[in-house]
Amino acid sequence: MQVHSFLHSDTETYTHVLADVQQQVCAIIDPVLDFDSKSGRTGTNSVDEVIAFVNEHGWELLYIIETHAHADHLSAAIHVKEKLGGKLVIGQHITEVQKIFKQIFNFDTSFRTDASQFDILTDDGETLALGDITITAMYVPGHTRADMAYMAVDKEKTVVFVGDTLFAPDVGTARCDFPGGDATTLYHSIKKLLALPEDTIMYLCHDYPSQGRKHCPTTTVAAQKLGNIHVKNGINEAEFVQMRERRDATLEMPRLIIPSVQVNIDAGHFPKPEDNGTRYLKIPINVLGQ
């Protein structure tokens, strides 16, 4: 098993490539589309580096895995699929998130809330085969209702891609104030992850390093239990929920939440072009945030 991580500097998001190098197959987790919110222009320079890396190694892409419908970056899954193939994977509870945001954005009846835009829907405990690697879905809601972590195991080691449930120990945990989020639920999801063996490597979806620290894509269960500022050993459920709810009340909405959610709940598709050939996204006024 090999994991290679690529940092998208604008959104501080990690895209990971998980590979069975003997079987020459791989998965890409959480690919990012470049998006300039000032101009509305998209780009693929960052994800093209990931695609080139896969091509250079001659690996076959089997899966494009989204840990959840991200609110801080736009998915590049469609571009990856066009270039490399692969099946698009997300947790089956994405249907709940689709229904929530279909109402918020007042999408018409053509928007599907059955997750049929995706190829594979995973439930807790279900597995995907990637050569000799077994990928197991872990349902970890709280940040959203549909978050999944994905644990990858082979004969050599165990790693887990945690999405937005946990960040580096000095950063803490995911916010829970988006529609459908819940701090109590997140606490129990995190405890599920922290029950894994302490030497399990956790691959982060984001890193927002404190001053003086460089970006790092990994942590471990042991490091989280010892030092996570929000949920380390000794912090109980009530303390966590109180901290999380107070903190969330002070946070601004993510810079890219409005374009990101619209695109990501539709598997990375943009709306169809209107009669002038241009695609448009919607902005709900006085709906999100405080």
Automatic annotation (TrEMBL):
Q: Does the keyword Metal-binding apply?
A: yes
UniProt entry tagged with the keyword Metal-binding: yes
SMART domains cross-referenced by the UniProt entry: Lactamase_B (SM00849)
**Which UniProt keywords are given for this protein, alphabetically ordered?**
Hydrolase, Metal-binding
Top-level lineage group: Bacteria
Q: CDD domains, per this entry?
A: POD-like_MBL-fold (cd07724)
Q: Which GO terms describe its biological process?
A: glutathione metabolic process; hydrogen sulfide metabolic process
One MF term in GO for this entry?
metal ion binding
Which Pfam families is this protein grouped with?
A: Lactamase_B
Could you list the residue ranges forming a coiled coil in this record?
none
Give residue ranges for domain Metallo-beta-lactamase.
12-206
Query: InterPro entries given for it?
Result: Metallo-B-lactamas, Mito_Persulfide_Diox, POD-like_MBL-fold, RibonucZ/Hydroxyglut_hydro
Gene3D superfamilies attached here? Answer: Ribonuclease Z/Hydroxyacylglutathione hydrolase-like (3.60.15.10)
PANTHER family of this UniProt entry? PERSULFIDE DIOXYGENASE ETHE1, PERSULFIDE DIOXYGENASE ETHE1, MITOCHONDRIAL
Q: What is this protein called?
A: Zn-dependent hydrolase
Organism in which the protein naturally occurs: Psychrobacter aquaticus CMS 56
